[in-house]
Amino acid sequence: MSVLIKICGMTDEEGVRAAVRAGADAVGFVFAESPRRVTPQHARAISKGVAPGVLRVAVMLHPDDDAWQEVLDVFEPDVLQTDARDFDNLSVPPRVRRWPVMREGDEVDTLPAEFLYEGRLSGRGETTDWDRAAELALRGRMILAGGLGAGNVAAAIARVHPFGVDVSSAVESAPGRKDPRKIREFIDAVRTAQSGMSES
Fold this sequence. Notes:
Elements: E1 4-7, H1 13-22, E2 26-30, H2 40-46, E3 55-59, H3 65-75, E4 79-83, E5 97-103, E6 114-118, H4 130-137, E7 141-144, H5 153-160, E8 164-167, E9 172-174, E10 177-178, H6 180-199
């Protein structure tokens, strides 16, 4: 199975096009406090050209249901990504996939079938403990986030064996400004690592 690649923090149509053209499986739009924050209307406008099969992910943090419903109605995402406990207070229709965020240091008794794993704080570019991540990856379809880039994603895949990987700041020329060359390099590194694993 291919490693799912998510390019997060989209702020303009050029970045979205670059990610899709390079072979990203998912593109993320941030609706939480961040240099990459966009409105539902803007996210809808810049994601119009996203090919079928590429997931459009709404990235939120502790939203109330009114904020989520606006994103749902206007942006119409394929996936909602927010902290695991947030889902208790949100009305999410069955057509929208859920990517609960599990954070390093959280007490984990049960895991959802599909989840994203990152550090204590989002958007800091900090790597997680990959050994701990590898343990959790055995228990569900983990999307590994935090501090990944073209230079270390192959090592992360080899150590953690995640279902997917998530990158944002490492493929930017400035906060919120995606760099097509860096996106290609990241995706090439993932695919090369995956090819090497399938041959071994």
